[in-house]
Structures are given as structure tokens and as C-alpha cells.
């Protein structure tokens, strides 16, 4: 298929936002913001992807204003005048290059302490005080042993405080001129930990059956919608797998997934970002439909797929052995997108290897080779 005629290069309208193509830079933790403040190097990093033609940039996870939101001082935050000034430079640089950008709001929840030492006097935010059932994970044994120690479950005051922190971060994003807001609701982090039965054993309004387990993520989405108004889109990332257990699931069948996703869409989410280790991985039973495909079928919302575009190994596999083989799965990606299975494709690692990835795909040039040691070493 000619690059210019590819479904990857059709524009898309999401509320008041028009993206020129369907290629999204996936959120990737980079941790190059000392004391949480993004500097000129971060602005240049995102600007280069905008100049390269990427339709929409989703930033790395950004800390909301809560004391246990993130556990690394090098992860950027979206509160405090110094950090907001830094993000203003990022937004201005991306817009000047003709790009669109949204911040991914992040609270690590039960996974507090995974990125490094933390203040032992702070209690991680966990729905029921538990880390979750241990399964297939890439976390080291010493961290898992510490994390398995039970903590105090979140109180009603904790829940209200965190919702307010998300809302404030969204208001900050709108004031800075971001083109929307993304929310990290997957991978075992805070919002996902309410969805997962292993981490949410509550018997109040925030837990119990699947509908009640979705109440907290939906309340966060609704609070953000109230702050950003009717024009800015909200992107919600969800996943089956958890970092506690890559085989875990929040939904055993499409009917259960529908309960979660329809509730989030009703609360104000516009784009369902279906995080999977491979974008073409079947989600349920005998169907070939991907997780993003099921999200679209069940809700009719705009959906985004992600996972191993141009690569033969998932992120977890490549981290274990340090290598990432190449795989030309672009024709399969285009086939699924042309069939309407999903609307957007988020690409992570190849965006590190090639800031001009969108142009490379349009020109049908050779895909870049990803090398973790090289491409995660700096903000090139």
C-alpha cells in the first residue's frame, strides 16, 4: 500500500482536536526531569517527534499532586510553578513544530517503591492494602517481598484527595494549552488496582462487583471532564496484564469488559487506549479481535492499539534479554486499521529509535532497528 494512501495517514477528529494522522507516540517513562521539572532537553525531545510528523504525542507518565503519586524524583510532575513553566516550554515547542500533545496523568498506587527508595513514613495508595497476587513479573524478588507487606487500605479521605489531585492536574494541563489529557489506568497502577479483583477486595461503594470496582476510575474521569470542559479529549489507558502478574485479567470475557469500558465512556473518556504486549494479540477465546478491537466493538468509542509495532518481542521480553528483534508487521497493522478494528496506533520504542518515524512510515522507508542500550541512554 502506498504510504500516502495508508489508513495510518487519515486525519481524525476527537472532540475539538484534529490529528493529522493515526500515529501516536506512546507514553514511555524517561525520568530525565530533575526534581520533577522538565527542562530544555525534554522540550527538544518531544519537539523532534512533532517535527517528524507524529500525529499525537502522549507524554511519559506525569505525577499528579499527591505525596505518593510517583517514586522517582526524575519523573516529571504537573504541579508547582517550576514544573508548570517547564511544561509550558514543552507545549510551546511541540505546537510551534505543528504537533499535538497530551500529558499522561499518573499515580503508581500499589507499585510505589518499584522505581527506587521511598520515604518509609508514607503509605502507598492501595484500595485494600494489598499489592496483589504475584504471578509472572519482571520485578526483582527483594522488591516483591517488601511490596507484599500489607498496608492500610485507602480511606474515604484518601480517595477524595486523590480525585482532587487528578482534577487539579487536568486543570493545569488545560491552562498550559495541552491538547487533551491522558490517564494511566492500566498495568497495576492506582486506577487499575481498583479494577483488579486481586487488589480490590473492598465491600463498600468502591469495591465488590465489577461495576463498583469501576466507580473510582470513573470518578477520576468525571472529575477531569469537569475541569477540561467539552472540547478537550480524554484518553484512558487500560490493560488486562499487570506488572504484578502479566497473566492477570480485569475481564474474563467481553461482557465483563463492556461493564468497565462503557462506564468509563459514560464518565467522559473519549479514547480507550488498550495496552497490550502486541497490538494484534487476540483478547478473548477463539476470536482474532484485539483488545482495542473489542473496546471499539463494545463501546463505539475511538480506540487505540499499542504493542510491539515493528518489533518481534514485547517490551517485557526485550527487557529480560536486552534485545528486540525486528518484525515488519506494518501490513497487518494497516489491514486491521483499514477494516475499522481500531482508530489509532501508539508506537513506543521505534519512536525512540527514529524521531521521524511517522515520515519513515509515510515514505515506506526501512524501519529503524531498536537497541535499548542506545535508544534509552539519553533523550535524543
UniProtKB/TrEMBL annotation:
One Pfam family linked to the record: Oxidored_FMN
Record-linked InterPro entries: Aldolase_TIM, OxRdtase_FMN_N, Oye-like
Source species: Nocardia albiluteola
Coiled coil: none
Domain NADH:flavin oxidoreductase/NADH oxidase N-terminal, first and last residues per copy: 8-364
Stated name of the protein: 12-oxophytodienoate reductase
Amino acid at each position: 500500500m502506498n504510504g500516502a494512501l495508508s489508513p495510518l495517514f487519515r486525519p481524525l477528529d476527537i472532540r475539538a482536536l484534529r490529528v493529522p494522522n493515526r500515529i501516536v507516540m506512546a507514553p514511555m517513562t524517561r525520568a530525565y526531569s530533575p526534581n520533577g521539572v522538565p527542562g530544555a532537553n525534554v522540550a527538544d525531545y518531544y519537539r523532534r517527534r512533532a517535527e517528524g510528523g507524529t500525529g499525537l504525542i502522549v507524554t511519559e507518565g506525569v505525577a499528579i499532586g499527591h505525596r505518593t503519586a510517583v517514586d522517582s524524583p526524575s519523573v516529571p510532575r504537573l504541579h508547582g510553578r517550576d514544573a508548570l513553566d517547564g511544561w509550558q516550554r514543552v507545549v510551546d515547542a511541540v505546537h510551534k513544530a505543528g504537533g499535538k500533545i497530551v500529558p499522561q496523568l499518573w499515580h503508581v498506587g500499589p507499585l510505589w517503591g518499584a522505581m527506587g527508595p521511598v520515604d518509609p513514613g508514607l503509605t502507598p495508595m492501595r484500595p485494600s492494602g494489598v499489592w496483589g497476587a504475584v504471578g509472572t513479573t519482571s520485578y526483582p524478588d527483594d522488591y516483591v517481598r517488601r511490596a507484599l507487606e500489607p498496608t492500610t487500605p485507602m480511606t474515604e479521605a484518601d480517595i477524595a484527595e486523590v480525585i482532587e489531585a487528578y482534577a487539579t492536574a487536568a486543570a493545569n494541563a488545560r491552562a498550559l494549552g495541552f491538547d487533551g489529557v491522558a490517564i494511566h489506568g492500566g498495568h497495576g497502577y492506582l486506577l487499575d488496582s481498583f479494577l483488579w479483583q486481586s487488589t480490590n477486595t473492598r465491600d463498600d461503594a468502591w469495591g465488590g462487583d465489577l461495576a463498583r470496582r469501576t466507580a473510582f476510575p470513573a470518578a477520576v474521569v468525571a472529575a477531569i471532564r469537569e475541569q477540561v470542559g467539552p472540547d478537550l479529549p480524554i484518553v484512558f489507558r487500560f490493560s488486562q496484564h499487570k506488572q504484578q502478574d502479566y497473566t492477570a485479567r480485569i475481564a474474563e470475557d467481553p461482557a465483563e469488559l463492556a461493564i468497565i469500558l462503557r462506564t468509563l465512556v459514560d464518565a467522559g473518556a473519549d479514547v480507550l487506549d488498550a495496552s497490550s504486549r502486541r497490538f494484534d494479540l487476540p483478547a478473548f477465546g477463539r476470536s482474532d479481535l484485539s483488545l482495542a478491537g473489542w473496546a471499539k466493538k463494545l463501546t463505539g468509542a475511538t480506540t487505540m492499539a499499542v504493542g510491539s509495532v515493528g518489533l518481534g518481542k514485547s517490551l517485557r521480553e526485550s527487557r529480560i534479554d536486552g534485545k528486540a528483534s525486528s518484525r515488519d508487521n506494518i501490513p497487518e497493522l494497516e489491514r486491521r486499521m483499514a477494516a475499522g478494528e481500531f482508530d489509532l496506533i501508539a508506537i513506543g520504542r521505534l519512536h525512540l529509535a527514529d524521531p521521524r518515524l511517522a515520515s519513515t512510515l509515510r515514505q515506506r522507508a526501512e524501519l529503524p532497528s531498536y537497541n535499548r542500550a542506545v535508544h534509552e541512554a539519553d533523550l535524543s
